[in-house]
Amino acid sequence: MSNFIINGLLQSRNPLLTFRRFRGKINIQRPRPPHYERARVLEIIKPYYKKPEFDAPCIDAERLKQSKTVDNPYETIIAREARNWFEHSSLVALLHVNSIKQEDMFKVQVALHRHNISVKVYGKSIMRKAVADTKYEAIMPLFEAKTAIVFSPESQKIKQILNVLKKTPQLVLMGGIVEGRLLSRNEFTAYATMPDLTTVRAQFAAVLESVGGKIVADLQCHQSQLVNMLDAYAKNDSPADKSSVSVTDEKVDS
C-alpha cells in the first residue's frame, strides 16, 4: 500500500504538452504592428492629455493660497489693539524669545509691570495687519521668529528694561522705537546713557545764559578797564596835589 502511494500518487510526472514561442524572441524595441481591428480600438481608447500652460503651477498655487486665506475678525480686533499700543507708547523694545520657561517669562512680566511696562506677544499675521501702511512697517522682518514687544508710556524707563534683560539671557534685544524713531540695538543702549530731556534743557539753558553773560562782559571790558585806570590815576594824584597846595600857602605867608 505504501509503495502504491509513493510510486503512484506522490511520484511527479512531466507535462504532456509544452508551449514554445513561434518565430523566436519578441523584439521589444521594434514591436510588430497590431492587427488592423486592434490598432483601431487602441487608437480610439488612447488617452488625451491637455498640454499645461507655462505658468500653470504658479497660477494654481496662487489660487490655492487665496482659497486658504480667510479674514479672521478676531485677528482684526487684536491687530487694532496692537496698533493702539504702538501709537500710544513712547518707548517700544523688540525682543527675540529663545527657549524659556513660562515661569521665568512670568517673572520678567512682573518685574517690568512694577515700572508700568507691558509685555505683549503677537503672531506674524496679526502684526502684518497691525503695522500695514504705517511708519512701523519696517519692523516686519523681525517677526519671522517668536518676538516679544515691550511697551512703555515713558521713554525714561529704558534703563529699567535693560536691567531686567541682563538677568534674563533668554530674551535678546534686537532694537526699539523711541519717540517714533526706529533704533538699532547699539543706538537703543546708547540712548539709555543719555540724560532725560528736562536735564538736557536745563543744561542748554545754562550754556545759553553763560554765553550771554560772557558777551556782556566782553562788551563792558574796555569800559571797566578805563574806569579802573582813571580811578587809580585819581588816587595816585591826590597826595601830590595836597602837598603842592601846602607849599604855595607857606610861600604866600612868608
TrEMBL record:
Presence of the UniProt keyword Nucleotide-binding in the record: no
One Pfam family named in its UniProt record: Ribosomal_L10
Keyword Ribosomal protein: yes
Transmembrane portions of the chain: none
Keyword list, A-Z: Ribonucleoprotein, Ribosomal protein
Cellular compartments per GO CC: ribonucleoprotein complex; ribosome
Family (UniProt): Belongs to the universal ribosomal protein uL10 family.
Protein name according to UniProt: Large ribosomal subunit protein uL10m
